[in-house]
């Protein structure tokens, strides 16, 4: 159910789909997957019987483990999911993750096509 992946693979995925990324998962990763699915059901974000299809594990250069939760967004209330994500705290949409956390995987923001001038940021 949990597969190792690379940041490059996540970047590719983010061009055609959206997933939820949990930041800093420690312990038994299967417990995170089951616990989040149960919480989404309990919070009425997802219907009874909802399960997360799989999770993708990516490790940052600093050793933090992040989990990308793969599930059918058509089976959840996306508005409620957005609010749930904000309340949960340490999670991100995949499309935001590949931009905002590129440096956590050894890439400069410019790698993903962003304008970045290190000298200019020193003056801020």
Q: Any overview of this molecule?
A:
The chain has 124 residues and is α+β, with helices and mostly antiparallel strands. A five-stranded mixed beta sheet has the order 1-3-4-2-5. It has one domain (2-122). It contains five helices and five strands. Helices cover 36% and strands 17% of the residues. Strand 3 and strand 4 (65-70) form a beta hairpin.
Annotation keywords:
alpha+beta, 5 strands, globular
Beta-strand residue percentage: 15-25%
Major sheet: size, sense and barrel closure? Answer: 5 strands, mixed
Number of domains: 1
Number of helices: 5
| Shape category | globular
Number of E-state strands: 5
Low-pLDDT ranges? 120-124
What Rg, in angstroms, do the CA atoms define?
16 Å
Secondary structure category: alpha+beta
- The secondary-structure element order is EHEHEEHEHH
Name the average pLDDT: 87
Terminal Cα span: 44 Å
Q: What share of residues is helical?
A: 25-40%
Outline of this structure?
This protein has 124 residues and is an alpha+beta fold. It contains five helices and five strands, in the order E-H-E-H-E-E-H-E-H-H.
């Amino acid at each position: 159910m949990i597969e190792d992946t690379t940041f490059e693979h996540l970047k590719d995925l983010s061009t055609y789909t959206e997933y939820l990324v949990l930041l800093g998962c420690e312990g038994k990763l299967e417990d995170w997957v089951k616990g989040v699915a149960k919480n989404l059901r309990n919070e009425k974000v997802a219907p009874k019987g909802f399960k997360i299809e799989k999770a993708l594990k990516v490790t940052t250069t600093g050793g933090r483990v992040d989990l990308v939760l793969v599930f059918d967004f058509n089976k959840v209330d996306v508005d409620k999911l957005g609010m749930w994500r904000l309340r949960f705290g340490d999670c991100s949409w995949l499309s935001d993750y590949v931009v905002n956390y590129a440096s956590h995987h050894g890439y400069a923001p410019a790698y993903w096509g962003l304008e970045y001038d290190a000298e200019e940021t020193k003056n801020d």
